[in-house]
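Table S2 (continued). Query chain:
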Amino acid sequence: MTAGTKLHRNVLALGLVSLLTDLSSEMIYPLLPVFLATTLASGPVALGLIEGVAETTASLLKLFSGAWSDRAGKKKPLVLLGYGVSALARPLIGFAGSWVHVLAVRFSDRIGKGVRTSPRDALIAAHVPPQLRGKAFGLQRSLDHLGAVLGPVAAFSLLWAGLSLRAVFLLSVIPGLLAVAVIALRVQDAPAEGAPRHAGGILGRDVLPGEFRRYLALVGLFTLGNASDAFLILRAVDEGVPARYVPLLWGAFHVVKSSLSTPAGALSDRIPRKWVVAGGWCVYAACYGAFALVKGPVATVAVFLLYGL
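Corresponding output:
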């Protein structure tokens, strides 16, 4: 790369952090519905409560963590704290004796995610000129997707070798702690900013355009009907997909998802982006309808992969 196109080392370092963290979390996530149903004898209600609390926690904290880091002027401490909390909390699912324990661990894990996400993105943007930000975030997301594929493959390999679900969960601590080490040793904090550290309050109502706020309202409405993917995993197992192959199915889903994200982005440069978003939501609705109707493992796997679109 020339000097004008070379990305700051933070981009690669935080991309590696995303890879290792997703490797760790995706060793657990696709197996969690199976673990709840078989080992802990908990039903879909418990799964829904766990995932609802977890994702709500992460979403709310993302809203506030960015503002906190802006006011503090330092972003690396929050990034390190967020990844550290998740890395230490996530593997504790291996010790869970009931779904309540899983809820507590997922809550802690999502606290970590909510704390770290906004400051991490700001940390990438702070070291990259505007004309390279697309490339920088594209690299970070690519490494994130790679981790989302490697995690299920690692989980499947460990299960194939005869390890228990609990052992797989406990071993996920290794890539999680490696991610924390990369942050501590390789990531630079953002340079101090001279601009005011508040702009429109937490919600930014006086700086966000009305059209964007309307879009956020639509996203919020869609999210109300957006069930956790964990239910789809449970559906696949109910339709005959062997539990040990669930990680491979989840990894294949991420391959489809990541391979189409770049073409979809390019398409949005040529046609109105609202039609691309609307098309994706229509595919989502069609897939959920198909999940309710299909029977047997082959048809279920086909719909699951289509859902990756």
